[in-house]
Amino acid sequence: MTRVLPVALALLASLSAAAQSGVSDAKPVFLVTDVVVGEGVDIDREVARDVLATRFGRIKDKIEVRSMTEAKAGIDAAALAQLLGEGDDDALAKVESYVQVDRIVFGRIAKVAGVIDVQVKVFNVKESVTEVGFARRLAPGSSPTMVLTLLDTLADSLLAWTLNTYTDGSRSAAADKLAGKKLTPKKDVVEPAPASSGSRFSWLGTVGGLGLGLGAGAAGAAGYSVLENDGVVGETEVALLVTGGVIGVLGAGALVVDVLTE
Amino acid sequence: MAHQSITPVASWRLSRVLGVVGLVVATSASTCLDALDPPECQANCDIEDECGFRSLAECEAAACNPATGAADNPGLAACLGAAGDCLEAAACACDDGCEKVEACSGSPDPECVSTCDTIVEQEPEATYRENTCRIESSCEDLALCSSVSG
């Protein structure tokens, strides 16, 4: 036990040193320390912490996230080595470097009158201030598994905040690749189809069809009349032909608009 | 043989009949043209397949109504149909994914869509798959949609 104490003190000292000297890594470094879980919430605190850390730290080329589970394992290994008389400066240096972080993430899951409150906060070690906090609530009667989903969404909020605040915000290579895959917008799925008709100009189809039919009918009637008159074209025939032609052209135009706007 | 001009009344009747015939022909043609269009949901699944989000079969099984061929989620379908590239398409599931979490938790998050858009720019495929999984799952199964690797 007397060997463990120096390790713990070294850990605290290294945290303090990191806070004072400032970690100049290009990537912001976070340590997810603890998620306090209140009574009546069906999730283990270590599980909650690791869910948060794993999801928050998944963009490894932009930010570095460490979980206290891993830090503890490192400290335990160093302490054990010292207890066995095998401790060396390298092991301690590894532990020290591991806990040199810019920011500490911690959280709390509490149940208040049936409502589960899940919150996470970021503590800036250098400036000794809480930089940001996010909270979500779970209504009474909700599925208990939703706590995991809320932890996911809070980890996403932390991640988006970190990306927007501490990185250049550039897209990943995978996103650039997808942006290069162009799509042709499908005209039939641009807007959700209304229940009754496909287009706001759909009435043009009806009017156009009617106009085209009337025009053809008038022209046909004029032609029939001319035939009956041995080819003599009277005023009635001319009037029918002109009227039918105009109505037919308008009808055809309406049909074309209907087809193009469908 | 006496030749008679068709009377105005007869010509009106004839043109009316032909008008009705024209209407029937136009309506039938329009219906046939509609039938030739691919079903909306299949078009969306083509996009998912083309962008590498899900296979055609997986998408059709999860997102399409087998009876009508229509998309189960019209909002997502409309967004996918209007997307100009696959990155835009990947962000399409953010709105409804966020809505589903809000509905299941009973707690709104005004920043959810903006958060999702930011993460889509880092992990587009995984984020799209996770959100569509949320949209298509029950509240009890929402936690199973999480897929983190890295």
Question: What would you call the structural class of chain A?
Answer: alpha/beta
How many DSSP E strands of chain A? 5
Query: Could you tell me how far the N terminus lies from the C terminus of chain B, measured between alpha carbons in angstroms?
Result: 97 Å
Mean pLDDT over all positions of chain A: 78
Describe the global form of chain B.
Answer: elongated
Word description of this protein:
The complex is a heterodimer of chains A (262) and B (150). By secondary structure, chain A is of the alpha/beta class. Chain A is built from 8 helices and 5 strands; from the N terminus they run αβαβααβββαααα. Chain A has a 5-stranded mixed β-sheet. In chain A, helix 2 links the parallel strand 1 (29-37) and strand 2 (64-67). Residues 1-25 and 189-199 of chain A have low confidence and may be disordered. Chain B has one domain (40-145). The longest helix of chain B is centred in the N-terminal third of the chain and has 29 residues, at 8-36. The chains are: A alpha/beta (262), B mainly alpha (150).
Defining key terms:
heterodimer; A: 262 residues; alpha/beta; Rossmann fold; 5-stranded mixed β-sheet; 8 helices; 5 strands; rod-shaped; disordered N terminus; B: 150 residues; mainly alpha; elongated
Summarize the model shown.
The complex is a heterodimer of chains A (262) and B (150). Chain A has 262 residues and is of the alpha/beta class.
Fold topology:
The complex is a heterodimer of chains A (262) and B (150).
Chain A: H1 4-21, E1 29-37, H2 45-56, E2 64-67, H3 68-83, H4 89-98, E3 103-112, E4 115-124, E5 129-138, H5 146-166, H6 173-179, H7 203-228, H8 235-261
Parallel strand pairs in A: 1-2, 1-3
Antiparallel strand pairs in A: 3-4, 4-5
Helix pairs in contact in A: 1-3, 1-4, 2-5, 3-4, 7-8
Chain B: H1 8-36, H2 40-51, H3 56-63, H4 74-82, H5 86-90, H6 93-105, H7 112-120, H8 124-136
